[in-house]
Design brief:
By secondary structure, the protein is of the alpha+beta class. 15% of the residues lie in helices and 36% in strands. Strands 1, 2, 3, 4, 5, 10, 11, 14, 17 and 18 form a 10-stranded antiparallel beta sheet that branches. Strands 6, 7, 8, 9, 12, 13, 15, 16, 19 and 20 form a 10-stranded antiparallel beta sheet that branches. The termini are far apart.
C-alpha cells in the first residue's frame, strides 16, 4: 500500500487488489474506497477485461516530477505485462499547487498480434459496480444530484435530481448521429444518468460535490455513467472505438481528474476548468475578444442573397456610433450545396470575396460560415469523390444525421485527399476570399463511428487531428468559432465556441409548423434549448474560449413574447459571450432596436450561476461589478415556468450580506428599496420572463442607481464625483445613444446641466430623479 498527498486529497493505492482510495481533505470519509481500473480489449476474436490486480509481476514506483503544465506533482506508477503481452502502466499524480487528483493509463502492445482496444475504464466506484464504495460528504439532509455535460455544442447539459429522467431525443437515427457519442449510454429512468467529457456528483444537502472528468479528449472520447439510487455509483471510461494497437505501439489515455468542491463558492469548477485549459494550452480570451455583430442566418436562412447582406451592412455601418457592432457574418446559403464550397448559389453571382472587401472597407470584420466535414448527398463532391466519404464495416455510408432535408454523410478525415479538401476550403476562405472570422459548423461529423481508412486511430484522435489541420490552414491570425463540435477535442484550437443549441423564433422546438411531437426535443433549435446551455455552460466563458450563446432575435414577428426576448437578451448579456443579432436590421422597429443597443458594449465577464446544481435550468445569475460609482451587484432572476409567477428577492438567497439595498429594475425602470432582513416583492414575472436588477448598498449621500442606456446600470459611467449637495458624472457610451440616468439624492435638485446646457429632470419616486443625457458628456446636478 502506497499513499500520495496534496492540499486537497489523500490517495492510497492497494496493489494486491488493484484498487485505490481517494479521500478529499475536510471530508469525514473517503469519497472512493476500493475504486477499480480496468481495460477491455479484443485479441484473436476473443474479448478480455483485465483488472489492475490481474497484471502479474507488477512493479510500483513513487517519485516527485515536474509537469510543465501542472507544476510539481507527487506520482505513483503501477506497471505490469499480462499474458497476452499487453503492458499496462497506471500513473497517479497529485499536483502540489492545484486541488486535483489525476491519473492516466498507458498501454503498450509487447506481444506479436494486434490488439483491438474497446475501453479504458479510469474509475469504477460504488457497490453496485463491485467497485468498493462511493460516498459523498454525508448528512441527514443528503440530496444527491448529477450534473450531466453533453457531448457537443448543441447537447442539453443540466443538473438532474435523483427523481428526474434524463432528457433524450426521440427522433432516433435521424438525430442520434448528431447528439449521441457512440459509446455513451442513454439511460431513460430517473436515478440513472450519463455524460460526456466531465460530470459532477453533488450532495445538495451538504453543499459539496465531486467533479470527475478528462482534462482533454485528444486521445479518446470520455464517457461517464452515474447512479443516484439506493447506492451511489460512478463509472468513467475512455472509448477505444476498436482502434488497433499494433505490436510495438503505445496508446495512452488523456489525464482523468477529480476535484472536490463547495457548491456555493463563486466559481466552483474553476480548478478543473483551469487544469483543462493548461493541458490544452488554451489562450484565455479577454473582454476585447468578445465579438459583437450581425449574422444572416435567423432571418434569411438559406434564402440569403448578396443584396440582403449589403442592405444590412449599410445599416451596421450607418449605426455604428449607436450600436457598436463590428462583425458582419454571412451564414449558410451562399454555397451551391453543402460540400461544394468553391461553387456559389446564384444569389451570390460574384461569390463572397467581393462582399468581404465591402465589409472590410466599412471598417468592419467579415465573417463566413462553413461546414467542412459534412457532405450533402446531392453535392458534386459526393458524386465525384465517393471514396472520401466515411463508411461502416460493410461499406455503407455512415449517416451524419438529417439536415438540409437529407441524410448527410461525413468525410473520412484519415483519407489524405478528404482532409486536404477540407483544409483547402478553410485556407481559401481565410486567405483568398478575405474572411478573418470563420464559423466552422457541423464538426461532429469528423468524429463519427465508422471503418476509418486508418484503423489505428480512435474517433477522438481522428477529430482532433482534423481540427488541428483546420487550425493550421486558417492561420493564427484568423478567429475560429466552433459549432456543432464535441467540446473536448476542440480545446485550445478555437477562440470562440457555440455552447448550446440553435436559437429559434419559438420557445419550444417546431418542425413543419408544429411542436406537437417535437416540443420536448432537448437539442433542436428553440429559445428554451439555446438558453439552457447559455446558463449551464456559463462557467467555461473566459476559461476555455469566448462562449457563443448563439444569436439574439428581437424582431416582433416571431412566436416569441417580449418577455422571452428580454430573457434571451438578459441571458446573453449576463453570461458575457458573443452578441450577434440576426434580424433584418432595416426592418427593425425602434423599440426592438433599443434592446440590441442597451446590451452593447458587451461586458465579457463570467457571472456566478447561483443555482447551477440546484435546478435543471438555472434561474439566478449574479455579476459583481465595480466602477467609479462604487460596487454593485447585477442580478438576473428568471421565471422558466409556463405560467406567471410572483418573485421575491432576499439578499441571502443571492449570497449577499444582510443589509439595506437600493434596487433598480432595468427592463421596467422601477426603483425599489430592499430593507435589511426583509424580502422584496418584485411583482408578477411573465412566463419565461425575467427581472434584471442592479443592487447597491444604501448610502446616505447621492447615489447612482443606473440608466436605461446600458444593461449593466453602471459601467457606462467613466467619472463620478459627489458630495452632499452636488453630483458630477461623465458617460462613455457611443455618442449617438440617448436616455436617462437615475440618481438617488438626499434633497431635491435645484438645477442640472448636460454638457453645459440646462436639462429638465423628472421625479421617479421619493428621492429618485431621472436626468436626460446622451452617451458621451458630463452631467452636473446641484
Amino acid at each position: 500500500m502506497l499513499s500520495l498527498e496534496n492540499a486537497a486529497f489523500t490517495l492510497t493505492f492497494r496493489p494486491e487488489h488493484g484498487a485505490f482510495d481517494l479521500h478529499p481533505r475536510g471530508w469525514e470519509r473517503p469519497a472512493f474506497e476500493g475504486a477499480r481500473i480496468n481495460v477491455r480489449y479484443r485479441l484473436g476474436g476473443q474479448a478480455f477485461e483485465r483488472l489492475a490486480e490481474r497484471w502479474p509481476d507488477a512493479t510500483l514506483t513513487q517519485e516527485t516530477v515536474y509537469s510543465p503544465r501542472h507544476g510539481r506533482m507527487e506520482t505513483l506508477a503501477f506497471a505490469g505485462v499480462d499474458e497476452d503481452g499487453l503492458s499496462l502502466c497506471v500513473h497517479f499524480a497529485l499536483p502540489a499547487q492545484h486541488p486535483l487528483a489525476l491519473w492516466k493509463i498507458r498501454l503498450e502492445n509487447e506481444g506479436s498480434r494486434p490488439v483491438l482496444l474497446d475501453r479504458i475504464t479510469l474509475l469504477e466506484a460504488g457497490e453496485a459496480l463491485n467497485g468498493g464504495r462511493l460516498r459523498l460528504p454525508g448528512s441527514g439532509r443528503a440530496d444527491p444530484a448529477w450534473y450531466s455535460h453533453g457531448w457537443q455544442s448543441w447537447n442539453w447539459s443540466a443538473t438532474y435530481a435523483a427523481d428526474l429522467p434524463s432528457r433524450r431525443t426521440r427522433l432516433g437515427l435521424l438525430e442520434a448521429p448528431m447528439y449521441i457519442c457512440d459509446g455513451t449510454p442513454q439511460p431513460s429512468r430517473p436515478g440513472h444518468y450519463s455524460g460526456d467529457f466531465f460530470g459532477a456528483l453533488v450532495d445538495r444537502g451538504a453543499r459539496r460535490g465531486l467533479l470527475a472528468g478528462f482534462l482533454a479528449q485528444q486521445q479518446h472520447f470520455g464517457s461517464l455513467e452515474a447512479w443516484l439510487e439506493d447506492r451511489l455509483a460512478l463509472r468513467a471510461w475512455a472509448n477505444g472505438d476498436g482502434a488497433r494497437i499494433d505490436p510495438g505501439t503505445v496508446v495512452e489515455s488523456d489525464w482523468f481528474a477529480v476535484q472536490a468542491f463547495d457548491l456555493d463558492v463563486p466559481q466552483p469548477l474553476d480548478a478543473y476548468l483551469d487544469a483543462a485549459a493548461r493541458e490544452n494550452e488554451v489562450r484565455p480570451p479577454s473582454a476585447r475578444d468578445v465579438p459583437a455583430g450581425w449574422c444572416s442566418w435567423y432571418y434569411y436562412y438559406q434564402a440569403v442573397t448578396e443584396a440582403a447582406v449589403q442592405q444590412n451592412l449599410a445599416v451596421v455601418a450607418q449605426m455604428r456610433q449607436r450600436l457598436a457592432l463590428d462583425l458582419v457574418q454571412i451564414d449558410d446559403g451562399f454555397e451551391a450545396q453543402v460540400g461544394d464550397w468553391f461553387l456559389f448559389d446564384p444569389a451570390f453571382p460574384r461569390g463572397v470575396a467581393p462582399l468581404a472587401r465591402e465589409i472590410k472597407n466599412q471598417g468592419l470584420v467579415p465573417g463566413l460560415w462553413l461546414a467542412p466535414f459534412i457532405v450533402h448527398p446531392g453535392s458534386k463532391l459526393a458524386a465525384q469523390h465517393p471514396e472520401w466519404l466515411l463508411r461502416d464495416a460493410r461499406g455503407r455510408l455512415v449517416s451524419s444525421g438529417f439536415n438540409w432535408n437529407a441524410i448527410t454523410s461525413a468525410l473520412d478525415l484519415t483519407i489524405p485527399g478528404a482532409l486536404e479538401y477540407a483544409c483547402a476550403v478553410v485556407d481559401h476562405a481565410a486567405h483568398d476570399w478575405g474572411f478573418p472570422y470563420l464559423k466552422l459548423d457541423f464538426l461532429y461529423a469528423g468524429g463519427l463511428r465508422g471503418a476509418y481508412n486508418d484503423p489505428c486511430r480512435s474517433r477522438a484522435q481522428v477529430l482532433r487531428r482534423g481540427l488541428e489541420a483546420l487550425r493550421a490552414a486558417a492561420g493564427a491570425e484568423t478567429t475560429l468559432l466552433g459549432c456543432g463540435v464535441p467540446l473536448g477535442p476542440a480545446l485550445g484550437l478555437f477562440e470562440a465556441m457555440r455552447i448550446g443549441a440553435d436559437v429559434a423564433g419559438s420557445w419550444q422546438p417546431r418542425y413543419l409548423g408544429t411542436s406537437l411531437f417535437f416540443g420536448a426535443e432537448p437539442h433542436m433549435p428553440a429559445l428554451r434549448n439555446a438558453i439552457q446551455n447559455t446558463l449551464t455552460r456559463a462557467p467555461m466563458h473566459g476559461r476555455w474560449w469566448v462562449n457563443d450563446p448563439d444569436c439574439l432575435l428581437v424582431r416582433p414577428d416571431t412566436r416569441l413574447t417580449l418577455a422571452e426576448v428580454q430573457s434571451l437578451a438578459t441571458a446573453i448579456a449576463m453570461t458575457g459571450g458573443s452578441l450577434l443579432v440576426s434580424d433584418d436590421l432595416p426592418a427593425l422597429p425602434e423599440e426592438r432596436l433599443r434592446i440590441v443597443e442597451v446590451l452593447l458594449p458587451a461586458l465579457g465577464q463570467r457571472p456566478r450561476v447561483l443555482d447551477l446544481f440546484d435546478r435543471e435550468t438555472p434561474a439566478r445569475l449574479r455579476l459583481d461589478l465595480e466602477g467609479p460609482t462604487g460596487v454593485w451587484s447585477l442580478l438576473a432572476l428568471f421565471n422558466w415556468d409556463d405560467t406567471p409567477h410572483t418573485l421575491e428577492l432576499c439578499a441571502a438567497d443571492v449570497g449577499l450580506p444582510d443589509a439595506a439595498y437600493r434596487v433598480r429594475s432595468f427592463w421596467d425602470g422601477r426603483v425599489l428599496d430592499l430593507p435589511a432582513g426583509a424580502a422584496l416583492d418584485l411583482g408578477v414575472i411573465a412566463p419565461h420572463g425575467c427581472a434584471l436588477l442592479a443592487l447597491r448598498p444604501a448610502q446616505p449621500g447621492p447615489q447612482y442607481l443606473g440608466s436605461d442606456m446600458h444593461f449593466s446600470q453602471g459601467t457606462e459611467v467613466a467619472e463620478w464625483q459627489a458630495d452632499s449637495v452636488s453630483v458630477r458624472l461623465a458617460l462613455s457610451l457611443p455618442a449617438a445613444r440617448q436616455g436617462y440616468v437615475v440618481l438617488w439624492l438626499p434633497c431635491a435638485p435645484r438645477s442640472a446641466t448636460f454638457e453645459g446646457a440646462a436639462v429638465a429632470w423628472r421625479r421617479e419616486c421619493p428621492d429618485v430623479y431621472a436626468f436626460p443625457v446622451h452617451g458621451q458628456g458630463v452631467l452636473q446636478v446641484w
